[in-house]
Amino acid sequence: MDPRLLRAFLAVAEELHFTRAAARLYVAQQALSRDVRRLERELGAALFSRTTRQVTLTADGERLLPHARRVIAAQDELVAAFTAAGRPLLVDLNSPGLVSARILERARELAPECELMARYESGLTGAAADIAAGRLDVSFGRYAGLDPALRSALAHQPVRYEPMAVLLPEGHPLTRLDAVPLAALAGETVYAGAGNPRTPEWTDLAHRLFEGRGIAVAEPAPLAVGPEEFGRIMAKKRNPVLAVVDFPAMPGAELRPLVDPVPLSPVSLVWRKGLIHPGVTALRSAAAELSATEGWLRRPANGWVPAMDAQIMTEQI
Questions:
Q1: How far apart are CA 206 and CA 200, in angstroms?
Q2: Considering the domain 163-263 in this protein, what is its CATH number?
Q3: Is 199 left (phi over 0), alpha (psi -120 to 50) or beta?
Q4: Which helix (H) or strand (E) holds 43?
Q5: How confident is the model at residue 70 (pLDDT cuts 50, 70, 90)?
Q6: Which of 45, 126, 219, 234 could be 198's S-S partner, Cβ–Cβ 3.0 to 4.6 Å?
Q7: What sign has the CA pseudo-torsion 195, 98, 266, 274?
Q8: How far apart, in whole angstroms, are the C-alpha atoms of residue 317 and residue 274?
Q9: Rounded to an integer, what distance in angstroms lies between the CA atom of residue 82 and that of residue 13?
C-alpha cells in the first residue's frame, strides 16, 4: 500500500476538513480526495462520511486510524535512519538580496537544528541539472522555463510572481523616470543573459516579453562575475539589463521597475523528486508562509506572464 494514501487519510482524519488537510500536505484538494477514494477502494471500505457541512470518520475509518498512525510512524523512523537528513542541505539562492534569501532565513528559524548552506550561482537551468545529478538540493527560479525532461526529475512549489525591472546605465535618458513603461524600451537592445548556458529560461522569458514591442535581446556577452566587473561591462556596453525589482544595487547602474504592463517573473522553489530532508520541509513551510503573508502569488490586474507559466504556477506539488 502506498504510504502517501495513508498520509492523506491521516491528514483528513485529524483535520476533518479536506481543504485544511490539503493545505497541510501541500497538495491540491482534488488530488487529496483522489488519494482518499483510492485508499477506500483498496480497503473495500468507506472511511469518511461526507456532507456539505461536515466530514466525520466512519466506523471503518476509526478502526483504521491507529494502524495508519503506527505504519506512518514506522515509515518515518525508517526514513530517518537512512535519509541524508543529518547532512547539510545545499541551497542555491541565485543572487544575494532576492526573495530566496528571505525564505532561507525564515527556514533557518523554523528548523534551527538543520544546516542550510547557501550558494549564489545565477540560473535555474544550471542549478536544476545539478539538482537532478545530486550535486545540489534546492534552487529557485522559473520552473516553466526548464526542459520538460528535466522537470520530470524535479518537484516545485510556486513562491512568487516577482515584478520585473530594468537596470539602466548611469546617464541613460530613462533614468529620469521613476518607472519605465515597456513601450519606452522600444528601439533599445536589452541584455537578458543570452548565451549563458545556466540561464536560458531567463532569456526565453525576455524573448516572450519583448516580442512585438520593438525591443531586441542583446547578443551574448562575456559573463560579468562580481559587482565591479558588472559595473565595468555596464559602462562599456551601455545596454539596459533585464532584472527584477529586488535585484541588488550595482555600480554604474540604476534600477527602475517596468510598468504598462507589469511583467512578472514566476519564481518557484525547486528540489529533486523523492528528496526527504527536514530542511526541504522547512523551506517549503517558509515559502508558503511568506507567500501568504506578503501576497507574493497575487497577480496585479495589469500583470503580464506567459500563459504556460501561469498554468504551471497553479500546480500544487
A1: 10
A2: 3.40.190.10
A3: alpha
A4: helix 29-43
A5: very high
A6: 126
A7: positive
A8: 12
A9: 28
Task: State how far the Cα of 270 lies from the Cα of 28, in Å rounded to an integer.
Answer: 18
Domain ranges for the chain, please list them.
Answer: 3-82, 89-161+264-312, 163-263
Q: Which three cell numbers stand for residue 69?
A: 498512525
Residue with cell 533557518: 108
Q: Among the residues of 167-269, which ranges form H helices?
A: 200-210, 227-237
In the predicted model, what is the mean pLDDT of residues 16-37?
90
For range 207-235, the mean pLDDT:
80
Model confidence pTM above 0.85: no
Q: Do domains 89-161+264-312 and 163-263 have the same CATH topology?
A: yes
The dihedral region occupied by 154, where left means phi > 0, alpha psi between -120 and 50, and beta the remainder, is beta
Provide the grid cell at 202: 531567463
At 138, list the grid cell: 534546492
Does domain 3-82 correspond to CATH entry 1.10.238.10?
no
Backbone conformation region of residue 16, classed left if phi is above 0, alpha if psi is from -120 to 50, else beta: left
Summarised one tens digit per residue, pLDDT across range 246-272 is 988 777 889 999 999 999 999 999 999
Please state, as a whole number, how many other Cβ atoms lie within 10 Å of the Cβ of residue 294.
12
Domain at 89-161+264-312, CATH homologous superfamily: Periplasmic binding protein-like II (3.40.190.10)
Counting every residue written for the chain, the total comes to 317
φ/ψ bin of 143: left (φ > 0), alpha (ψ from -120 to 50), beta (otherwise): alpha
Which residues are paired to 154 by β-bridges? Answer: 272
Place of cell 543529518: 86
